[in-house]
Amino acid sequence: MITRIEISTKVSDTRSLVRKAKIERLGYHKKINQVNIVDVYTINKNFSQTDLNKISTMLTNPVTQNASSKSSIHPPKFTVVFEIGFLPGVTDNVANTAKEMIEDLLKTKFKTDENVYTSQITFINGQISKVNADKISESFYNPIIQRVKIKSYQEFIKDRGMGKEIPLVRINQQPKIDQVSLNVSDSELIQIGKSGIVNRDGTRRGPLALDLTYLKTIREYFKKKDRNPTDIELESIAQTWSEHCKHTIFADPIDDIKEGLYEKYIKKATEKIRKKKSAKGRSSSGRDFCVSVFTDNSGAIKFDQDYLITDKVETHNSPSALDPFGGAITGIVGVNRDAIGFGLGAKPIINRYGFCFAEPNDKTPLFKGSNFTQKMLEPRRIMDGVIEGVNSGGNCSGIPTPQGFMFFDRRYKGKPLVFVGTVGLIPNKIFSKSGSKKSYVKKAQPGDYIVMVGGRVGIDGIHGATFSSEAMDSGSPATAVQIGDPITQKKLSDTIIKEARNLNLYHSITDNGAGGLSCSVAEMAKESGGCLVNLDLVPLKYPGLAPWQIWISESQERMTLAVPKNKWNIFSNLMKIRGVEATIIGEFTQKKQCLVKYHDQIIMDVDMKFLHDGLPKRVMKTTFTQKTHQEPRFKVPINLTLTLKQILKRPNIAGQEFLSMQYDHEVQGGSVLKPIQGKGRINSEATIVRPLLTSSKGVVVTQGICPTYSDIDTYHMAACSIDTAIRNAVAVGANIKYLALLDNFCWCSCQDPERLGQLKRAAKACFDYTIAYQTPLISGKDSMFNDFKGFDRLGKNIKISIPPTLLISSIGVIDEISKSISIDLKFPGDLIYILGETNDELGGSEYFSSYKYIGNAVPQVDARKNKKLYTNFYKCVKSNLLASAISVGRGGLGVALTKTAMAGDLGLEISLKNLPGKFTRDDFALFSESQGRIIVSINPKNKARFESFMKKNSFACIGYVTQQKNILIKNPQGNKIIDLKLKSALESYKSTFEEF
Question: What is the full DSSP assignment across 687-707?
């Protein structure tokens, strides 16, 4: 029996008003009289009317809502109506929660073929036809994961509603194991690598992302075994060898660097830094504070004597281009599992994010397919969906999300960049009756059960790892998209971290992320030697999955654990009590084989060494051409005040309070420095969180990202990203001697020697500058094929590549949170100082971009000078000499001065007469993006002491804080060049995203 429970509001519904406004913006202004939204729960399980009434009552607020399970609810007047729900097999989080609530309420259980499904009806009353409704609905649903049904008023009344449908997954084929012949031509091997194994009906399964060299190596391996690989073996190897999992571009030889970029420039830099720090002795500022780097799901540093903090930043670019909400929520809950999967399990305590989008107002269409097929989502849809996904993932998980950014460039239209990160907290040691052990050491033992906990397996997420290892094109599979369920994961996380870990119930744990079981089990099997998995035991969302699908599916909310047999009963009972599904699916062995069986037949038998280390090295060659651009040809603007106001409106500078305030940064109660600061509510570039409420120590998180500098030189782009990430942390009170970094390389066209040359230069900069600053890299992730290949609005072939992008994230420990420094001015009469030099370095700047120029003078970092400055700055922090501080970044001195003034709701009087550096024009002085600069305000009483700390650095007193709410800036000649009221500045700063 199928029942629909429909719920409407008795009072004004904000959702309906927002939807009405959005429809009007689509071109239907003054044509819409009213919009009404009705929520629907469709249940395919027999319940009495009494039980249905109880369920309806549970799902509604009787004061504000009506519910009906007998007939359709609709407004008295409407013209057209459309209903949107999920496609079969797509995770429906609200429905899953409702199902659990019903089971608790009625003390019943849903059987395998029984379920709850949600959908939403939109009634429109206005001058709208059914054709119009079809176009309107395109802005509210994503055909990759959702279905829509549209009816006119007459059809709705005739049919007595929208009808009863349930999106059941129906897999008609009988699961079979196929043999795959690789004894074919090179062209066919290439096709297998690109488009996948051929199904029995002639279609292909989706990308393996294996090139010809890899496939020939696999062919030779199975030739020695005197057989063809099974489909599951080939699929499993493809996941393990994918660029997404193995990072082959960073690992393979390149030019004369035999060990590859990762070993040469990333890993070796950290090794040298740690060695030097270890040799410095016992001082807390000199010691090596790293604990675990590049070996686990996250990197870890010491927080204090008893705790470690972990950090990991991931990218979820490709899935977010197809389904922004699903891609983003999967990204954030997935990187939460990187914390949970670190060592024996860290508690997620901070989420961080970063989004690179195309301009949200760009409506020019792109198509993945020819003949105007497979239309890509518009930038605004992608932006809204990604923001909502991270919102849902973080807020529903009870993890604060205080730190992040948005960056806009038209080249992110083909594929957005979605960075998501999680900081974790874990005790240094785990204590039990048998003694104590290091929390960051884990090792699956031969004989341990292989246990899968969390969500069930479906066809969502098939080929996620291999799909993310290629450019976006018409072959990008919809099945690569998943939707995370933070509620399910929250139960899993709490049970593991708060109970099972401290009871010493398992030996090892890892995330079921890219590649699903095929990667998590095989990775953990390296710890014991090998594994034997029985796919018949894996819990499925629905029947009919082929063995290879079960093995590589990336369905979410799953972890894999190594549980000793003598602790299984305790572990199993604990999980059952907490409502977390836990299933034995095999056993870890000491044999050097990865064995998988299905229906009592071994269907995968691959040597562990070949699976993990058998991929051939491919020597890559690079080229490098120094780019030059036309130098800007414009005079100093007559009205620089107006220019500054326009710069404040630019999306990369404008206030993003609408975004920051969607993310709960107060949950867990440790927020110290917040994402929005001061009376003026201005975005900060760094935040501080106190993870232990009994401690005065804090964790500082921030980042640096400068994609436009890549248009000139990726070496300096990387250097500036590093300096910015460090400087942002230093400016709020962090000690540079206790800062660690994370790198996320997002590149494009990495088979192009020129792009590889740019990558090599950026990696070299990471080596040079992390060593210069003595800031170790503790974790990283790369995404190498951020290109779009498709068709433009005229149907012509087009390729869009992102600008080479490097995100550097920094994390550090603040010894005393009471000494942290916010960006807002505090007191009239305080002195304003600029630390660092301002030069004519505007290449790739926001200012030049506003005139549609790139320029050539990219900012360059003097690490020796800057490190000295940052070290002396920290002495001022410890001595409580600073009232406020703001890092000078994008938009330069003019923007930084305006932001600190707006934040404090106080005025400034500034003179550029003594400004350190070499600059040739007033506008260049205001908008140069020279690195290594911080603006501070201090009490005049501290002037002598402050200047004594800074005496060997470039610095100058350039003005003072005023009671008047006005920003007044004079040039070196004493002429007024900026005269801007704070109210006017704030209006400009907050206007860009006012409607969002």
Answer: EEE-S-TT-S-EEEEEEEE-G
